[in-house]
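Board notes, transcribed. Complex of a protein with glutamine.
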Amino acid sequence: MTHIGVLALQGDFAEHIGIFQRLGIAAREVRHPQELADLDGLVIPGGESTTVTRLISEFALLEPLRERAQDGFPLWGTCAGMIVLAQRADELAWPTLSALAITVRRNAFGRQVDSFETDLTVPALGQQPFHAVFIRAPIVEEVGDGVEVLAKLEDGKAVAVRQANALATAFHPELTEDHRFHRYFVDMVRAHKDGKA
Ligand code: GLN
């Protein structure tokens, strides 16, 4: 049995849990360090990265999550969660997990285009485009060594990246009916659990 946790300090954690459950995966809310013990992977959902990073520190989750990230524990951040996983992010008073060698800029699409939707080519998910919903999304400004870009916008900006067992999407796959990113993460988690990644 694969156990996936969804960080439930703030944001749209319920949507992720609903999708994993529909895929037959035991998914549950995580708020405290002891709840990490029997997990095989963790999702950090969209929300407000200022609030989430502050609560991660206040709930004593920063060190346990950083340690797990270093040990290759599977993590997936969506939107604000991408910011939480990044090595560098602007205008954040609280530390991030530094699980991905990326630099992100928050709310980077500007007020006029606060939210938008677009079809992305994501070769790792197959030929069919992925309909992506962006809401006050971050931009990946720099991608470091070892980071694989899974999807880009037409202007070449990376919006889905992976480095070892850390996955991040600037958009919200939990808000659409296409569950291929959730399946992709489940495959990452299973491969890690089976000792293959
Ligand atoms: N703008 C938010 C932030 O900076 C992210 C928005 C989202 O997760 N939908 O944290």
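Helices lie at 13-22, 49-58, 62-70, 80-85, 180-193. The chain has a mean pLDDT of 96.
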